[in-house]
Amino acid sequence: MIFTMFKRLKKFLVGKPLTNEQIEGEKFGILWGLPILSSDAISSVAYAGQEMLIVLIPAIGMLAFSNMAILSSAIIILLIVLVISYRQTIECYPNGGGAYIVAKDNMGVLAGVTAGSALSVDYVLTVAVSISSGVEQIVSAFAPLHAFKVEICVVLIILLMIGNLRGISESSKMFGIPAYAFIFAILAMIVTGVFRIMNGQVPSPPSIAEGTPYAGMALFVLMLRAFSNGCTALTGIEAVSNAVPNFKEPSAKHAKSVLVILALIILVLFGGTSFLAQYFKVNPLTQGAVLVVMAKEIFNGGFMFYFVVATTFTILILAANTAFSGFPMLISVMAKEGYAPRQLSMRGDRLSYDNGIVLLSVSAIILVIMFNATVSSLIGLYAIGVFISFTLSQSGMFLKWMRHKGDHWQLKAFINGFGAVLTTFAMFVIAFTKFHEGAWIVVILIPTMIFGMLKVKKHYAAVVKQLRIKHEDYDTAVEKKVYRNRVIIPIESINKSSVRALRYAKTISDNVVAFSVAIDTEAAKELQQRYDHLNVEDIPLFIKYSPFRQVVEPLLEFIESAEYDYQKGDMITVIVPQFVVKKWWHRFLHNNTREFLERELLKHKHIVVSVMPLQLKDDDEVLKQV
Amino acid sequence: MIFTMFKRLKKFLVGKPLTNEQIEGEKFGILWGLPILSSDAISSVAYAGQEMLIVLIPAIGMLAFSNMAILSSAIIILLIVLVISYRQTIECYPNGGGAYIVAKDNMGVLAGVTAGSALSVDYVLTVAVSISSGVEQIVSAFAPLHAFKVEICVVLIILLMIGNLRGISESSKMFGIPAYAFIFAILAMIVTGVFRIMNGQVPSPPSIAEGTPYAGMALFVLMLRAFSNGCTALTGIEAVSNAVPNFKEPSAKHAKSVLVILALIILVLFGGTSFLAQYFKVNPLTQGAVLVVMAKEIFNGGFMFYFVVATTFTILILAANTAFSGFPMLISVMAKEGYAPRQLSMRGDRLSYDNGIVLLSVSAIILVIMFNATVSSLIGLYAIGVFISFTLSQSGMFLKWMRHKGDHWQLKAFINGFGAVLTTFAMFVIAFTKFHEGAWIVVILIPTMIFGMLKVKKHYAAVVKQLRIKHEDYDTAVEKKVYRNRVIIPIESINKSSVRALRYAKTISDNVVAFSVAIDTEAAKELQQRYDHLNVEDIPLFIKYSPFRQVVEPLLEFIESAEYDYQKGDMITVIVPQFVVKKWWHRFLHNNTREFLERELLKHKHIVVSVMPLQLKDDDEVLKQV
Predict the structure, then answer these.
(1) Span B588-610, pLDDT tens digits
(2) Do A495 and B467 touch (CB under 8 A)?
(3) Relative to the CA of B439, which of A143, A178, A222, B101 has its CA 20 to 30 Å away?
(4) Which residues form the domain of A122?
């Protein structure tokens, strides 16, 4: 009843089930692949630069803006190297070349699982950071919403979850147009902004207190910390190479094109907004989200201002959505190989990986609540995971070229090797500068996950080994053992239910006994008398006195007793009745003895528990009958 | 694993299981029966008078104290009438003469169930009010604890629950001595107080603002409201007559003696403290708990002051404990007769009614949290239930004498009749004056409970009727129907588990089929090939193509198909394998297909689900083997 209601609710929220054939129809080309897979990278325009300023401004004041330009250039160079590197990965791994696959293929299981853990953590953070940043944009524009920041984030994650449970294609198209709208909006803002700068219309920025004059090592460390925050602009590139099979054929070609377009877009948007920031000098610590404040200045708070806010918010939601296709896909690959619970590898009714989607949503909600939906707090955990997987992926590719050679392998090895060196450098920078700001959580979490994944794999391997039939036994396996098939029927009282069980037992075996426990001798005597009236001489009744009023223990004792004469190889079927009730609350009116009995008996080898249902009729109907 | 841990925890908290024979040893005589059964009534000294003053003082100021004396006398008269009435009940109902039994016996099911509901509500309130009042005494003496009032209450209820799960006798003796200590403490306070009054040592009371001069109807209504609060002094008398079988033989005699001693104690303590209140004029609204404040005055805050606080606190805890023996006993009687879920009628390992104890504790905790552990708020809900059951019980006894006569029946009928009239009057007074202060909750709750109880009874009656074997069919019931016994084995892949199922199936039937669903034709072909290798010609394999990747629906369709040729009367056994794992977390690594399959199949008549366990070995052990 409750179950049916749940099914109906699910159908309403999630839509009708799709068949397997419909998988092909759910794939996308460049037009829709770009928004759904690269919005994570594109959207980081909204926070990467801003989080650099948040580190720099309190320390070096106005100097922050010129230093930001230098750091932005460094990050853009890193982006270009990564895109070239990843195009090579896509070519080699047309079935999805995430860091997990690449690392595992070329550097072994441990590297693969490490990359997998790092990426998993990162997908969760993508959702938490993007949603928190999206809501930050909104509350910067509409201050009264500030009090409900966390609540809004949680609702948004739940909506994304439902959307994604409905299936891939629908969500990609639903979410596709606003991605282009964002690109258009920011381009319009950059063009208008540059035009106004050229006309000398830049307002005098609010004065920012000069920080202590930083220099030498101190300045260098400060720059590295800002750089670490800026590196979050590069998250999301992985998504494209991980999701190659999601593209229409030729999928590798489509994926590679998407990667290049993506790089160009980031170049223009990130570069452009960094350029504007030097002139408009927004202080995110006092004024709110940088993009929103700049848009207000540039467009004088008109329609285009609201357009920028709306599309920025939307692209950040899309960024979170990237993780909703990336994470379940990654985790399903790992689950299929036995490194994660098998349930994560199963497609749901709408052909999405339901369990993965739910796991991602729940984890992200926990993070958002823990860190109060604050981007500056979450950012400390964010980039480390991405750069661990970048490093493993690039190193894996480098080793691949070195081993397998092929056309132009020297150039290819150099590209991936150079990528590996850069990302390794960035990884250490992030780990050290961000350790105290949350990276330590990830540094502890990833080894824990690796440990768990290896344990899971071990369990599955052990199960497979136990279930495997030896080749030489194969064709005689079923005939091999013939055992005595015996039946025990636990009886509480003599009624239609126990009579049905007796009747059934006789058809499946000729070695049947009934068994009962009694609290006192009087009850035992009465039961025996009633049983004798049934005239079933071929099924003896054994009544045991149970001082603790329990059934399982006396039953197991009985089976082991000389009286029952259990022989090695005997197979015992215990028949337990189960009432199937009409109304949901009726189940609270019956003992759960059956479930307890079933659970306890199943612990014992050579005991089969046969559950015999008795459908109870409607109360009124029964009582009406004469 | 988790289950075992829970069992161990329970054993540690609750103690070792007791056998049925030990029930007799758990009964008590007058010495221990008095404290455990009458502490509810005795302890009301701590709040009944005080709650009268809380109503009176804001309205009529100093006049409150003289009016309180009049009302206290009225309540003491009511007490005496009730005790005499209830002695007659105990004599007639030596097996426990709670209002439920008396009302049901003499006035039918509806009256009985009404009394039962009213009493149930009341037991819960006894716990909530007594605990809240107990904690109020403590925080009146130690102000810093005030902030933790609700938390302390919840912890105390949980401790009482654990104590009572440990069994009756232990708790009665553990809690017996402090009850006597309380009686001694209050007697000492009364004697000292009277001595000081006679020596003119009464301090001048803090000035209390004169209220508006009340007169006529307004004063009368005010007095009635105060009287309603005072009536809470009479709660708990029921407990003695309800628990007659808990006394040692001769149990009726012991119970009657306890009732008389109880009345004497209340007379002295309630009368005495009311008398003192007239001289010491404590204002509970500003000064805190009346008993505590008076004790401070009388004993000048010395040792005896702390002794009064400690024993008052303890007796109130004991009062709550009364409900822990009364409620489970009442509800178990009702459950045995089918008016409450059967689980409530079962004794636990320590011979207490575990489920009833837990139900009471949880309900009381909810109330305490809802009403913020404030006696003045809870008191509005309290007395109405008691007086509903008093009225029903007395009316029932009156009707009993009128119908069955016997020795001195006229006198006996008069006593119970007079009791009925007085309690009916009090019931209406409480219902009307307290309606807005919470009694409405109870007025709605009781009919709801009655409705539920009658529904439960109906269900059990319908079940019994469905299970009953007709007398004429009795000795041929088992032989009656002979049906085709057929077996279906759902197979996912060919492994040791499916081979075991095939082997087992052959021993229980010669009409066996294997069944599998495949996602595509390729998978189907592969499975069929592997199956053919097993050489089980007598068990055909049916493979169905399942576009929705589900098993249950195709299986049910198959059973209904012409191909399977299901005949009315066929009994189908479906064998489902179940992995039994070694470590608790391993269960998350396997699908719950089995549970889902079992639940869905059991909805269908003539399908027996046989669960075949496969004990998985330890992972390391398996992988070590060659």
Answers:
(1) 888 767 778 888 888 887 889 99
(2) yes
(3) B101
(4) 27-461
The whole-number average pLDDT for the span B93-101 is 80
Q: B516 has which bridge partners?
A: B543
Distance from CA of B107 to the nearest CA of A (A): 24
Residue of B nearest to A508 (CA): B508
Say if the Cβ atoms of B548 and A349 lie within 8 Å. yes
Contact B420, B395 (CB under 8 A): yes
Q: What is the CATH number of the domain that holds B339?
A: 1.20.1740.10
Q: Cα dihedral sign for A162, A164, A166, A172?
A: positive
Number of cross-chain residue pairs from A and B with Cβ atoms under 8 Å apart: 214
Residue A369's DSSP bridge partners are none
Residue A374 domain flag: yes
Domain count of chain A?
2
Smallest Cβ–Cβ distance between B622 and the set A20, A465, A469 belongs to: A465
Query: Same domain, yes or no, for A184 and A263?
Result: yes
**Peptide linkage before B250 cis (omega within 30 of 0):** yes
Q: Are strands B485-490 and B571-580 parallel, antiparallel or unpaired?
A: parallel
Phi, psi of B579 (to 5 degrees): -75, 130
Interchain proximity B19–A548, CB inside 8 Å: yes
Residues A512 and A593 in one domain: yes
Last residue of a domain, one of B402, B427, B461: B461
- C-beta atoms of A342 and B591 within 8 A: yes
ipTM above 0.85, yes or no: no
Candidates A475, A507, A619; nearest CB to B571: A507
The residue type at B120? S
Q: Are residues B168 and B215 in the same domain?
A: yes
Does residue A514 sit in the same domain as residue A382? no
Give the pLDDT band of residue A1 (cuts 50, 70, 90).
very low
- B471 belongs to a structural domain: no
Say if the Cβ atoms of A608 and B613 lie within 8 Å: yes
Residue numbers in A near B535 (CB within 8 A)? 475-476, 478-479
Q: pLDDT class for A187, splitting at 50, 70, 90? A: very high
Chain B interface test: which of A483, A610, A623 (most B C-beta within 10 Å) = A610
Please tell me which of the candidates A458, A502, A589 has its beta carbon nearest to residue B478: A502
Between A509, A589, A622, which is nearest B508 by CB? A509
Q: Are residues A505 and A455 in the same domain?
A: no
Name the β-bridge partners of B16. none
Same domain, B448 and B512: no
| Separation in Å, CA of A523 to nearest CA in chain B | 13
Nearest CA in chain A to B499: A478
pLDDT above 90 covers a percentage of chain A that reads 21
Interface contact flag, A495 B469, Cβ < 8 Å: yes
Shortest alpha-carbon distance between residue B590 and chain A (Å):
7
- Distance, CA of A166 to chain centre: 16
Reported confidence tier of residue A361, pLDDT bands at 50, 70, 90: very high
φ, ψ (nearest 5 deg) of residue B39: -65, -25
- Asked if pLDDT for residue A119 goes beyond 60, the answer is yes
Q: What is the pLDDT of residue B1?
A: 44
A497, B467: Cβ pair inside 8 Å? Answer: yes
> Are the CB atoms for A133 and A46 separated by under 8 Å?
yes
Report which of A128, A364, A92 is spatially closest to residue A255, judged by C-alpha positions: A92
Interchain CB distance below 8 Å, A462 and B617: yes
Query: At residue A222, does pLDDT exceed 50?
Result: yes
Distances (CA, A) of A382 to A221, A328, B504, B606: 19, 19, 55, 57
Instruction: Residue A536: give its domain's CATH number.
Output: 3.40.50.620
Instruction: List the single residue in B with minimal CA-CA distance to A611.
Output: B609
Q: Tell me which of B87-91, B479-483, B516-520, B550-554 is least confident.
A: B479-483
Question: Is B18 within the bounds of a domain?
Answer: no
What type of residue sits at position B542?
Answer: F
pTM value surpassing 0.90: no
